[in-house]
Amino acid sequence: xxxxxxxxxxxxxxxxxxxxxxxxxxxxxxxxxxxxxxxxxxxxxxxxxxxxxxxxxxxxxxxxxxxxxxxxxxxxxxxxxxxxxxxxxxxxxxxxxxxxxxxxxxxxxxxxxxxxxxxxxxxxxxxxxxxxxxxxxxxxxxxxxxxxxxxxxxxxxxxxxxxxxxxxxxxxxxxxxxxxxxxxxxxxxxxxxxxxxxxxxxxxxxxxxxxxxxxxxxxxxxxxxxxxxxxxxxxxxxxxxxxxxxxxxxxxxxxxxxx
Length: 259
What we know:
5 helices, 4-stranded mixed β-sheet, mainly beta, 20 strands
């Protein structure tokens, strides 16, 4: 994995994260099993890894714990299995971030890929017309920001390599699934072709226009440094990710947002 400043590793046999002495985290990772996500797949009877991904929410350096609590800011890490689920890659359930009490609106999420390769898929809405749809392919060390209110999911772009990422989110995070589930998932399904490449199949439940595939960009409007791990950037400037908790204070940045 990339150097993050946290020194966290993942135990492949136990599916647990391992923390250095100076780092806090949950005693056990939360597991998402195949049965938990099949409803979001194109093939509801597909087979794949039993543990699809492992989640540890609220991790960080012990010295930062009180500041993170005060800011209502939370750092989480997730490890995705390799392999596939039928013809589809391993991925999360699609969802929208619920309203946060910190700002009374949906909140963004800042992803940083730690190992492997990810696709962060996002669409403006989960209504019949999903608006703009993007698939952002990110490699280890790259950052992707999902804006408030957008429906999204996280995809392991590789059949052969586990994918791990870290992310900043609001402490009272919550997920809305109803609209996504009513449409049998998001507007595009990723699938592996015969050569193991990701291709996209449109979900007929939506009136989608087109899917834009792209690479991550630099987020200069949020003063992020593309060459520094995001936890280290928080350490250097504790207020740098306050926009995650209070996106209402920078509404202009979310207008016509480009992932």
